[in-house]
Specification:
12 helices, mainly alpha, MetI-like fold, 280 residues
């Protein structure tokens, strides 16, 4: 049976829409299920109290602080290195052996399981550098883990900036650095920020790499050299040990809400920055 081109196009479009709707339905089901089970557990005490009795009682205040600190350390360290590498590959080098090696290395790092990063962080940061189980060790490990994501997304965003923008700047006697700062970076800002936001979400939800480098104590961290337990690790331990499914769902709901707030807030800041840049 031979189909016409129009019928084939309709069938393909229907299949594509069906796949998109199915993915969206699964995502919404998971999010709604977690929120329905977890939100009734969330209250002021749950947000402000430290976990007690192995997590059966109290709240998750210390894990919230630990999650935010580890994520902040990872992003602050990884973003400059990632952006620098991306601009080097996109603006300062020609296609050659060195660039191929750097891209291959970044792509290989992106495919490494997180447990391997955790083992590397434990051996190098915790043991060899004597940073012990700490927020700093966990943040450095996560920085290495998210570096490939920032490099690849930033490079693609920079390359997507039209060459005519650069040519106009050079015709006005602007230097390479001035062109990058004044034109290329603002134009690629949305794509770069999306890569950083994606990396933030991965840091918040990471467990294996964090539990091997930051530990899992329930007390409130006092400095970057203190060990800590993140919300993802807390959720994992509560479920694995069967300690408290109610608190586990409450923790999972807060992880979803935190990632949502970070995404919405970051996109709002990006839109505001880009609108200001257009009005100049």
């Amino acid at each position: 049976m031979k189909l016409s081109a129009r019928a084939g196009q309709r069938i393909a479009k229907t299949l594509i829409w069906a796949a998109a709707v199915a993915v969206l339905a699964v995502l919404l089901f998971v999010i709604l299920y977690v929120l329905i089970k977890g939100l009734p557990i969330v209250n002021w005490g749950f947000l402000t109290e430290i976990p007690r009795n192995m997590g059966r009682d109290g709240g998750i205040a210390s894990t919230i602080v630990g999650t935010l600190l580890i994520t902040l350390v990872a992003i602050v360290i990884a973003t400059p290195f990632g952006l620098g590498t991306a601009f080097y590959l996109a603006e300062y080098t020609r296609e050659g052996r060195i660039t191929r090696i750097i891209r291959f290395s970044a792509e290989s790092l992106a495919g490494i399981p997180s447990i391997v990063y955790g083992l590397f962080g434990f051996i190098f940061f915790v043991d060899i550098l004597h940073l012990r189980w700490s927020i700093l060790s966990g943040g450095l490990t996560l920085a290495v883990m998210i570096l490939p994501t920032i490099i690849r997304t930033s490079e693609e965003s920079i390359r997507a900036v039209p060459d005519i923008y650069r040519e106009v700047c050079f015709s006005l006697s602007a230097t390479k650095w001035q062109t990058i700062i004044k034109v290329v970076f603002p134009s690629a800002l949305r794509g770069i920020a999306n890569g950083v936001i994606l990396s933030v979400g991965r840091c918040v939800a990471e467990t294996a790499a964090v539990v091997l480098t930051a530990g899992a104590p329930l007390r409130m961290p006092s400095s970057l050299s203190s060990p800590t337990r993140t919300m993802a690790v807390h959720f994992y331990l509560l479920v694995r040990e069967g300690i408290s499914m109610d608190n586990a769902f409450g923790t999972a709901a807060l992880i979803v809400i935190l990632i949502f707030i970070i995404n919405v807030g970051a996109n709002a800041l990006i839109n505001r920055a880009m609108s200001k840049n257009r009005t100049r």
